[in-house]
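Hi everyone,

Forwarding the result from last night's run.
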Amino acid sequence: MTVFTFPAPPPADVEALRAEVRDFLAAELATRKPRDRARSWSGFDAAFSRKLGERGWIGMTWPKAYGGHERSALERYVVLEEMLAAGAPVAAHWIADRQSGPLLLKVGTEEQRQTILPRIAAGECFFCIGMSEPDSGSDLAAVRTRATPVDGGFRVTGTKLWTTYAHKSHYMILFCRTGGQEERQGGTSQLLVDLNTPGITIRPIADLSGEHHFNEVVFEDAFIPDSALIGRMGDGWNQVMGELAFERSGPERFLSSFTLLVELVRALGNDPSDRAREAVGRLTVHIVTLRRLSRSVAGMLQNGENPALQAALVKDLGALVEQEIPEIVRGVVSVEPSLQADTELAAVLAHTILNAPAFSLRGGTREILRGIIARGLGLR
């Protein structure tokens, strides 16, 4: 049986940076209510993202030649976890900084890097992910959106689903089929798609709380130029698997419900019951452990390793904890969840309950992740 480890991340002097980020957030979020902070990495605020870009907190690890700042992955990790713990609205730049930019940096053309990366680092260029499709469930290799080669580029037809903030993004990284359906993984590629391209329609999908951040994106014979091809034709599967390692391991995989935990501690006050102490202590231990695992993955990425298995484990365990928090809160505090409640705890609880089912879907379903882990351990 194979065993995979979580090595200790290399030491980094990051406390000065952490203090700087906390001071910035204390000023910027001073009037932001907990019910708004609960949205955090699903909270879209283009002006806030531009401020982060001005401070050099987007594209932190990228080369300066592309607008980056050549800082360490652990310095970037500090900024991310402080943003999420404080409930900062980071959705505008999040996908581009987390995975789209690193993908272009790794396999993009020089023209793509020079054109796109400095704008991402400035907090002025936003991305969405074109992976999921109707009727394909969690089987990403069943992608049916097709890019047919034509003179000068591709004609794209198909539909992408659950595309977060496509209606506010400038670009999509499109995972599509460029070979035969029978080729499965080997017949796929990725394209850099300008969402203003004729032939692309973006339709809203409301979530359980009535909010609009999901979308259906329909391609109807849209022309995408040759220059949009990312990496090599037919290598889309390998590229997208590497991209998912960035998506699955970050602190957003265990801090989505963190504002609810903060509000629980605030509501319990200085003299909580033994049951409440036990519940908060248990959740705290879980989060500390997940943070250690997640920081380890950040260190592995910094060292140029491929922590796909470790990232899958962090994502699976993190989703379990995130989904557990609202149920634990309801077990130790008498509160009726309501988005319109006068108390912040009740409003944050309602928001978290409505969004928690998605925690084990985004970035790969629980069943898919456990299959990846099992294969990595030699169990199947």
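The chain has three domains: 15-126, 129-234, 239-376.

Cheers,
N.
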